[in-house]
Design goal:
The protein has a five-stranded antiparallel β-sheet with strand order 3-2-1-4-5. It has two domains: 88 residues, OB fold (Dihydrolipoamide Acetyltransferase, E2P) (Beta Barrel); 33 residues. The radius of gyration is 28 Å and the shape is elongated. Helix content is 50%, strand content 28%. A hairpin with a 7-residue loop joins β2 and β3. The protein is α+β, with helices and mostly antiparallel strands and 171 residues long. The longest helix is centred in the first third of the chain and has 46 residues.
């Protein structure tokens, strides 16, 4: 009787372990592929922008209405910058940086950060020179880490499942 109880408990624990490790394994596969997809898109975006110095000619601001929100604040900076090593020598570009804010305080903070007749670091698109923004696009590094961790856990899952299968087959 004791051996049957012990067999039942060991089989239940083994089955529970397999279920838990399978859930972890499939979750890690999903995490790895999501990380891969996000890494590729953010890497392409990150690598397509170069930094330069933008001279702020002037700015304009307005209120706006966004979807499902009552009020937003819009600031448009007219900027001038050079694109080094373009098809000609250094090429001057005139463009507008537009940013939308949900509170007036955030808008005022950026207005204080990027004043008229000042020069600040900005980022322009390598092929669409007129596409310029104040912030550098997000780094793909967190998604690379997510991808590595997800696929490493997937590898561990396959090693554990293979080891358990071999152990029970030759036992």
């Amino acid at each position: 009787m004791a051996s049957r109880i012990l067999t039942f408990v060991s089989c239940t624990l083994y089955l529970s372990f397999l279920i838990i490790i399978t859930v972890v394994g499939f979750t890690s596969i999903i995490i790895g592929f999501v990380g891969l997809g996000l890494y590729i898109s953010s890497s392409l975006n990150f690598n397509s922008y170069n930094s330069t110095l933008c001279f702020v000619i002037d700015h304009d601001y307005d209120t706006c209405h966004q979807q499902n929100e009552d009020l937003c604040f819009l600031i448009m900076w007219s900027v001038e910058y050079t694109v080094p090593n373009s098809d000609v020598s250094d090429r001057y570009i005139f463009s507008t940086i537009t940013k939308t804010y949900d509170t007036p305080q955030k808008a005022l903070n950026d207005l204080d950060s990027y004043k008229d007749n000042g020069t600040y670091t900005c980022y322009y698109h390598r092929t669409h020179f007129e596409d310029v923004k104040w912030e550098q696009p997000s780094s793909p590094t967190p998604y690379l880490i997510m991808m590595i961790v997800g696929f490493a856990l997937t590898l561990i899952y396959f090693v554990v499942i293979t080891s358990l299968t071999i152990y029970h087959r030759f036992r």
